[in-house]
């Protein structure tokens, strides 16, 4: 059916609108949310099969012909990102049954998550640059609600920071879209790509490309625009932090990938060179931060920054190995960050603190948690056969193929630092002498641990099953490398 | 015509940046509002302002003004309205919690 | 101290309906001329705010007993339902349908499904604006 690719966007927002009718009935809210998410996942699986067999899917809203209407496009990259974000949201929603507290659940917590998911899936699926702005804003407004829900003082301060940074970035985005429209006269991404190829990438278009990298980099936390991230992400409760860390920065990264490969691939000497330098600096800045803190949340938050740098470095290589590695690593990172944040949420619930110096010896009383953390840590660092390995391998191979030796070496060195930072958590929290802990009831512990273990198991399957996923990732990378496939699917409809 | 608009947009962005860097919460929110006004004016200018007739088939004929930037501006205005409303309510709540609207006091709001 | 609001209240009793009717006119005119759901919603919200200024919150919520959050939900469902109706006909999403009907009082009118979508937008805007104003304004 023609509208299949819109279902992962429509079902969450319909579910959220239905949820607005009964905000105080918590059991009904939980049930309807899970039903809506499961329905969206089934639709996304159907969509994945359609995209793998029939190629890139495109639909233009309102039955207008392609360059004039708003196009929504599902290529293998978009559909795998949509499916991953739906799975992660389901895991975090089940996780928050036991951890978010009834106060927040009664004040539109689940509708906010579903509205944010609409914005995320819409950003991944859209093929029109102003529609990308609109879905970004939907996603941002829902995230403002989530970050401030609960009203603790720390949340109030951090949400002011977060909202102001994003308002300025949105104003920049509209400015850039205005300039892009005045140069090419169209908003449809496939049409812009064709027109840019025709008129050649002159100076003004390179400026617009850099401005787009700036806008999406503010959202995706690259150097030097990441300074809002550690403060703002540490303030909300852990399930919200898991959603933000796994999904929101990746929308910015996806937008950079899409615009740099589809719209502006013609002057790699400037744009891709700049992206590569920024990515290396992001990796270095993230490594410094990950080693500097003894706070659980901050270590994993700085690991987000390292991962963003690695993905963008892979994209900046512009060869098949680098692009495929970037796609592999992007999906791996979404899953593993969700798992890591959920696990540190369990640790915080057990010990009552997030300071590493005040905990120890949890291995004796909570061995399941300890071993799951170790598996997740190895997955993050990229130890084969877990999920981080193939992405990094392909990115480093792409770097060596493109003669960027030092970049590849820095990526490899950052893996060691990532491993050090998460193993340090293992050493301090799980080994050593047991310190007196607050403890938590068995029900809450199981309710929190089971979604975390399931998401970590998903990353293990992702790593071990790389051979099966390779065709999907290779297709995604090929479309990034040769944008004419995407353009044909949209415009020759 | 575009020249005057661009100068105006530049002045508005200057005012907005000055307000955004101030210490008082309400001035910062006013700064975001002025910034969004400047950006919307930029959208009109970039769409070719003032050339052509009303873009309705029966109202005029000949070269029409570009209707697309007008729709873009409507959308952007609605979005900035919602964000400004959210920021204002947040500022009010922060004022209730901290007792002041000075950003330096709000910085230390959770360190009692 | 009881301030005498006689002039304001008497004027409001007439002006409210004028503003509301103008809002409805702008809403319906939105298809072919400037206007539409967003502007109509803001004007209706400003009419209700005028009522709030002249009378107090309790009187107004007795006169207009709407739960504005439910209004937002109904508006969202209406808008999404209208846009999703095209899924049942297997045409691209958001395709509208319109036709000319012979209505008893109005004669030949063209009815367009974009009007239903705009009605959804109208309800969302009224609900959201009233929610914002009541949240800030009812603290005193």
From TrEMBL, chain A:
Give compartment(s): Cell membrane; Membrane
Annotated TM spans: 6-22, 34-52, 77-95, 107-124, 130-150, 162-184, 204-228, 240-262, 274-294, 301-322, 334-356, 368-386, 406-431, 443-464
Q: Name one GO biological process term.
A: ATP synthesis coupled electron transport
- A Pfam family this protein belongs to? Proton_antipo_M
GO MF assignments? antiporter activity; NADH dehydrogenase (ubiquinone) activity
Q: Provide the membrane topology annotation.
A: Multi-pass membrane protein
Keywords, sorted A to Z: Antiport, Cell membrane, Membrane, Transmembrane, Transmembrane helix, Transport
Coiled-coil ranges from the UniProt annotation = none
Question: NADH:quinone oxidoreductase/Mrp antiporter transmembrane domain: from which residue to which, for each copy?
Answer: 128-416
Primary localization? membrane
The answer, when asked if Transmembrane helix is one of the entry's keywords, is: yes
Q: Where does it sit, as one GO cellular component term? A: plasma membrane
Keyword set includes Membrane: yes
Name the NCBIfam families on file.
Answer: PRK07691.1
Question: Its family?
Answer: Belongs to the CPA3 antiporters (TC 2.A.63) subunit D family.
Protein name in UniProt: Multisubunit sodium/proton antiporter, MrpD subunit (TC 2.A.63.1)
TrEMBL record, chain B:
Gene Ontology CC terms: plasma membrane
Note the topology in the membrane.
Multi-pass membrane protein
Please state where this protein is localized. Answer: Cell membrane
Q: Which UniProt keywords apply?
A: Cell membrane, Membrane, Transmembrane, Transmembrane helix
- Membrane-spanning regions, if any? 6-21, 28-50, 70-92
Residue ranges of coiled coil: none
Instruction: Just give the chief location class.
Output: membrane
Recorded hits in NCBIfam families, A to Z, give:
PRK08600.1
Q: Give the family per the record.
A: Belongs to the CPA3 antiporters (TC 2.A.63) subunit C family.
Q: What is this protein called?
A: Multicomponent Na+:H+ antiporter subunit C
- Organism whose genome encodes this protein: Bhargavaea ginsengi
Its lineage reads: Bacteria, Bacillati, Bacillota, Bacilli, Bacillales
TrEMBL record, chain C:
Q: Where in the cell is it found?
A: Cell membrane
- Top-level taxon of origin: Bacteria
Q: Name one Pfam family in it.
A: MnhB
What Gene Ontology cellular-component terms does the record carry?
plasma membrane
Q: Does the keyword Membrane apply?
A: yes
Q: Where is the Na+/H+ antiporter MnhB subunit-related protein domain?
A: 7-130
How does the protein associate with the membrane? Multi-pass membrane protein
Transmembrane segments annotated in the record for this chain: 12-32, 38-57, 69-94, 114-134
Keywords, alphabetical = Cell membrane, Membrane, Transmembrane, Transmembrane helix
Q: Which NCBIfam families does this entry report, sorted A to Z?
A: PRK12573.1
Which family would the database say this protein is a member of? Belongs to the CPA3 antiporters (TC 2.A.63) subunit B family.
Protein known as: Multicomponent Na+:H+ antiporter subunit B
Q: Which organism is it from?
A: Bhargavaea ginsengi
């Amino acid at each position: 059916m023609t509208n299949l690719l819109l279902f992962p966007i429509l079902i969450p927002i319909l579910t959220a609108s239905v949820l607005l009718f009964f905000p105080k009935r918590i059991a009904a809210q939980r049930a309807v949310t899970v039903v809506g998410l499961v329905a969206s996942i089934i639709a996304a699986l159907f969509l994945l099969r359609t995209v793998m067999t029939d190629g890139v899917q495109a639909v233009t809203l309102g039955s207008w012909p392609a360059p004039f209407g708003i196009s929504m496009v599902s290529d293998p990259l978009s559909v795998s990102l949509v499916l991953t974000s739906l799975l992660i949201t389901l895991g975090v929603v089940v996780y928050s049954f036991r951890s978010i507290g009834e106060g927040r659940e009664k004040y539109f917590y689940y509708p906010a998550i579903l509205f944010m998911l609409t914005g995320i899936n819409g950003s991944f699926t859209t093929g029109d640059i102003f529609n990308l702005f609109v879905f970004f804003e939907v996603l941002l407004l829902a995230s403002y609600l989530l970050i401030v829900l609960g009203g603790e003082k720390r949340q109030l301060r951090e949400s002011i920071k977060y909202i102001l940074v994003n308002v300025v970035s949105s104003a920049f985005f509209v400015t850039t879209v205005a300039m892009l429209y005045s140069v090419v006269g169209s908003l449809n991404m496939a049409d812009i790509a064709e027109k840019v190829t025709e008129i050649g990438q002159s100076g003004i278009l390179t400026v617009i490309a850099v401005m787009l990298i700036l806008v999406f980099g503010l959202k995706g936390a690259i150097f030097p625009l990441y300074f809002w991230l550690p403060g703002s992400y540490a303030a909300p409760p852990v399930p919200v932090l898991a959603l933000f860390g796994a999904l929101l920065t990746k929308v910015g990264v996806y937008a950079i990938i899409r615009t740099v490969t589809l719209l502006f691939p013609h002057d790699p000497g400037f744009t891709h060179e700049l992206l590569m330098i920024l990515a290396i600096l992001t990796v270095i800045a993230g490594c410094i931060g990950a080693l500097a803190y003894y706070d659980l949340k901050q270590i994993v938050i700085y690991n987000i920054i390292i991962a963003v740098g690695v993905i963008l470095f892979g994209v900046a290589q512009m060869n098949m190995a680098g692009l495929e590695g970037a796609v592999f690593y992007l999906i791996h990172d979404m899953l593993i960050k969700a798992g890591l944040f959920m696990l540190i949420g369990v640790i915080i619930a057990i010990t009552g603190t997030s300071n590493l110096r005040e905990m120890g010896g949890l291995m004796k009383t909570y061995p399941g948690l300890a071993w799951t953390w170790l598996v997740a840590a190895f997955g993050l660092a990229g130890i084969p056969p877990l999920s981080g390995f193939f992405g990094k391998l392909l990115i480093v191979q792409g770097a060596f193929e493109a003669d960027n030796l030092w970049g590849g070496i820095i990526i490899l060195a950052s893996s060691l630092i990532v491993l050090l930072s998460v193993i340090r958590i293992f050493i301090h929290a799980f080994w050593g002498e047991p310190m007196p802990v607050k403890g938590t009831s068995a029900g809450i512990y199981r309710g929190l641990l089971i979604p975390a273990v399931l998401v970590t198991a998903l990353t293990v399957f992702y790593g071990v099953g790389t051979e099966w996923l390779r065709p999907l990732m290779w297709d995604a990378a090929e479309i990034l490398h040769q944008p004419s496939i995407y353009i044909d699917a949209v415009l020759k409809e | 015509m575009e020249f005057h608009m661009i100068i105006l947009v530049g002045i508005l962005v200057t005012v907005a940046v000055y307000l955004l860097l101030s210490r008082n919460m309400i001035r910062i929110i006013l700064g975001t509002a002025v910034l969004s006004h400047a950006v919307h004016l930029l959208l009109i200018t970039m769409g070719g302002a003032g050339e052509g007739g009303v873009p309705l088939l029966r109202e005029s004929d000949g070269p029409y003004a570009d209707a697309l930037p007008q729709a873009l501006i409507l959308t952007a205005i609605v979005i900035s309205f919602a964000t400004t409303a959210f920021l204002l309510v947040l500022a009010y709540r922060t004022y209730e919690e901290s007792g002041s609207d000075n950003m330096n006091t709000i910085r230390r709001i959770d360190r009692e | 101290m009881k301030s005498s609001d006689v002039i304001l209240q008497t004027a409001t009793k007439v002006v409210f309906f004028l503003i509301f009717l103008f809002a409805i006119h702008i809403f319906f005119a939105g298809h072919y001329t400037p206007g539409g759901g967003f502007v109509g919603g803001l004007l209706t919200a400003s009419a209700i705010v005028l009522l709030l200024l002249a009378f107090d919150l309790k009187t107004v919520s007795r006169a207009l007993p709407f739960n504005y959050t439910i209004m937002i939900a109904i508006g969202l469902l209406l808008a999404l339902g209208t846009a999703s109706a095209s899924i049942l006909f297997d045409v691209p999403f958001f395709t509208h349908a319109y036709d000319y009907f012979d209505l008893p009082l109005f004669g030949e009118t063209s009815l367009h499904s974009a009007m239903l979508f705009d009605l959804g937008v109208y309800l969302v805007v009224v609900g959201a604006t009233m929610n914002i104003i009541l949240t800030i304004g009812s603290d005193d």
